Amino acid sequence: MLKAGIVGLPNAGKSTLFNAVTRTHKAAVASYPFCTIEPNVGVVAVPDERLARLEQIFKTGTAIPTAIEFIDIAGLVKGASRGEGLGNQFLANIREVDAIVHVVRCFADDDAAHPMGALDPIRDIEVVTTELVLADLDAAQKRAEKQQKKAKTGDKEAQAELALLGRLLPHLNSGQPAVTLPVHEDEARLLRLFQLLTAKPVIYAVNVAEGDLAGAAAHPLVQPVAAWVRDRHDAACVPVSAKIEAELGDLAPAEAREFLADLGVAESGGAALIRATYALLGLITFFTHNEKEVRAWTVHRGAKAPQAAGVIHTDFEKGFIKAEIIAHDDLVKLGSVHHARETGHYRLEGRDYIMRDGDVALFRFSA
Question: What phi and psi values does residue 299 have, to the nearest 5 degrees?
Fold first, then answer.
């Protein structure tokens, strides 16, 4: 299962947001730094209305969503790259995740003092980013020193790494994250081997006060963050209110919808964040069905039919023959598999078929 790590400065609302999106109370919430020491882990269903529509068609009574693992990581402080606070542990925990959800504080709260005194979201982002970049700079320098010896022996891989590191080191030294370094396909493969913190995709969760969520896009603290993220990082930015998400977790679905409507909000920020994280990781969803359940599955965009079959069971990939495919929208429009077959919307696809988001699939395989 893919993992997203929730990071940010102390008292940014990370643990509150974690508890809300995972619908748990695993993470302690308190107004002092390092309330979270050991990372908390929770599995989060990816909201997808298509699954409910398919369940209505197949009438199985069971619909199983796809999921992401969220990890609440201890708050970072200035100097973490040198071991300040829980620096070494913090950095090690980030290294284990596939993507980073960076919680940025855009709310005032006298009961939860800002660790740096005053609200300044751009400064906060830059503190976290700088510490990650410094950690990567140290790791990249050590790798370059190691590969120089191999390169002198004529090792082609080491020479290719040194060429990439020759561009990467000044890039990091200028304070820019590795993910913004332009690379071609071969370099991207090498970059993954470096396991750099700032090479991971990032989504910024802008945490606002309850009363500010409806108009978050125009909020004077949110607008500069959105501009910074767009111009400096080319990443996603999602406004959330951790406090609202925490309240929603204790409500029935109908009550939650009514509560959001009263606030002038169409959708939970937590749901938007989960979907944005899913998209950030380059994932798509396909669906399967049988007499017992309809189910959502996750594959990377660009995956072919045998790889998708392998997500269900390795034997399906090994013995793959064909895939019966219909698009979710076509199936909903037609109302049944029988009608879809009659009208030619059900297709037989082979090994080279590239899965599309929303495909409903039945895999044929040999035992």
Answer: -140, 160
> Quick one: 10 exposed, middle or buried, by C-beta within 10 A (0-12, 13-18, 19+)?
buried
pLDDT at residue 151 greater than cutoff 70: yes
Q: Determine which of 75-89, 177-191, 260-274, 279-293 has the lowest per-residue pLDDT on average.
A: 75-89
Q: Cα separation of 88 and 131, whole Å?
A: 11
CB 74 within 8 A of CB 39: yes
Sign, CA torsion 191/192/193/197:
positive
Task: Count CB neighbours of 59 within 10 A.
Answer: 8
Q: For residue 53, what is the DSSP state?
A: H
Q: Are 41 and 70 in contact (CB under 8 A)?
A: yes
Is the pLDDT score of 31 beyond 60?
no
Q: 8 pLDDT band (50/70/90 cuts)?
A: confident
Query: What is the per-residue pLDDT for 225?
Result: 92
As a whole number of angstroms, the distance between CA 325 and CA 346 comes to 6
Closest C-alpha among 34, 32, 38, 44 to residue 2: 44
Secondary structure tally for the chain: helices H, strands E: 14, 12
pLDDT at 267 over 50: yes
Q: 33: number of CA atoms within 13 Å, CB side?
A: 15
State the pTM of this model. Answer: 0.79
| Average pLDDT, integer, range 342-350 | 90
- The tokens describing 297, both together, are 């599955």
Sign of CA dihedral 108, 112, 117, 121: negative
In the chain, which ranges are continuous DSSP H helix? 14-22, 49-58, 87-95, 121-152, 156-173, 185-194, 222-228, 242-248, 253-263, 269-280, 305-312, 314-318, 328-334, 337-342
The rounded distance, in Å, linking the Cα atoms of 233 and 213 is: 23
Nearest to 208 by CA among 276, 280, 109: 109
Cα(258)–Cα(252) distance, integer angstroms: 10
